[in-house]
Amino acid sequence: MEGLPLSSPRTVEEVFNDFKGRRIGLIKALTIDVDKFYQQCDPEKENLCLYGLPNETWEVNLPVEEVPPELPEPALGINFARDGMQEKDWLSLVAVHSDSWLLSVAFYFGARFGFNKNERKKLFQMINDLPSVFEVLSGNVKQPKDHSGPHNSSSKNKSSGKSRQSENHTKAVKMPILPKEEESGNEEEEDDEQAGTLCGACGDNYAQDEFWICCDVCEKWFHGKCVKITPAKAEHIKQYKCPGCTTKRSRV
Fold it and tell me: How far apart, in whole angstroms, are the C-alpha atoms of residue 34 and residue 9?
């Protein structure tokens, strides 16, 4: 398996950063790069595993030959189950096994470098603050609550012409003109809602001044960089469909 860290993470923060990188790689495989991932999991090939790498990439590969392995290994033979169930169920199964593998790698490092009780607890809390791969894939992460009220229209300003970087784009959401008192009254509530918004691709939180775009089909939010959409490109998109929704429609 490629992508083993040249120097293994030794502190709680280093192990957590390793976890985050691998997690983002796995989420990309199951969302943005799902077509490529699906094709690589050919049932005619030998036992294959999905690896998330610390540099936020992924690979489908054969398991390592050394026994015991350098790191815990992910679920073996994911390709054999690909054609035996609905694609959505298969991806969900891979996501659940991926979450299990991520935890095993993180706590392998913890055991290897002698993390004490408090360090293990801190590591788990940091990991637990992120949505799991399965939660991101299934959409069970907090998104903007409602698209009908003035409050939500304001939050939709995070995307494309809807973005904070350019509020003059024609794609900006239909934003009602609110009295100044109401705007200031909603400001704190809006900040709370935005802080809880998670990217549908990587699962990370919304951060101010980042470019975001909202899928007009599933209504999930995405970092522009995660779905390869720039503010300039977003100006010319009348209806944006995320990679997941585009894939679903092409296979119907």
Answer: 29
